[in-house]
Amino acid sequence: MLTQKDVWQALEQIKDPEIPVINIVEMGIVREVAINGTAVMVTMTPTFSGCPALNVMRNDILAQLRTLGVAQPSVNIVNAPAWSSDWITPEARAKLNAFGLAPPAIHGGDVNVILFDMPHCPRCGSADVILKNSFGTTLCRAMYVCNQCREPFEQFKGI
Amino acid sequence: MNAELTSTLDSRVLALADDELILAHRDSEWTGHAPMIEEDIALANIAQDELGHATLWYDILCDLRGQPDEHADQLVYFRDAADWRNAQLLELPIGDWAFTMLRQFLFDQFEWVLLPALAKSSHIAVAQAAAKVLREEIYHTRHSTAWVRRLGQGTAESHRRMQTALDVQWPLASQLFVPMLGDAALVAAGIWPDMAPLQQQWLAKVSEMLAECGLVAPATAATRISRHTHTEHLVNLLADMQSVARLDPQADW
Fold it and tell me: ipTM of this predicted complex?
């Protein structure tokens, strides 16, 4: 008999396709697990609505549920409450930083309050950085250069 | 919802979805051609965001019609120009960088007044989609506003190009707010906001920016043409966008 814990642990094995150092649970993408006999439904929410990783993650979840032996796996995608970068766990923020992707500041619901905050350079820790582009190599990233170590880096955007 | 409300909401959502989709396509035409690499990346991102937003609205449309999500692909790839409901502003060719950035600004500001009102809709799916899109639009409005300011207050040449773009786009921009049959019932039911006061908000916000840049809105009368009419540019856009899908309608992507 599958438990909630079994399913959540299995979901923690699924990495974010665009950021392979963190899993979809610590990203705050998985909202709910519902077990009903042989059927398991996972409710998830997209980060950015145009994110092409959404379908990859949905298929990864279905595959993982089948690996667990779930006869009727399903994924329910919801838009509300809208995903917030505040939901990224502290552990995942540390992993993002170690990966070279500066984590977004906590904004508490209104992203305007951090819109002009500068991240610290994930390489040398300096706060002396400059925004080069509010957009980046994926929908969720912005590009900076560190004035201290002179290296370019990306930030996960606050949303 | 009764049949009349459903039908009017269908028209409203279709218009918004088509606006987003057509703008996404026009923006995507700059990929590989933008004046600098940062902007190439930025506009490709904005195009992808607008495509994501179009998908949200088409999904709601599919639910309203009791159709599966694949219905959205049919609408986008197999619909002729006469059946599209986007505003003409969005189908015009990309022009120069000033033209593209001004159009993005005018549309971003349209969304900036519409979405907070839509987020209060009594129709839950509409309200949820609007709240989601609004979060992402913060980055768009910041970007397009910065470009209008940069070009409008820049050199004599950049200012001239902005003014030229404004002369073409200004009369068409009001079509974004053009009334639709059945609007009053939709407003009364709290499903869609009254577009008239939103247009005044938009006008105030946009005018403030134009004044800051010394740009002058032409005195030509605002257009009242319905969203049923299009320029020949939409036909060309669709011929390009739909050509691959129409080559083999049964292909599995």
Answer: 0.91
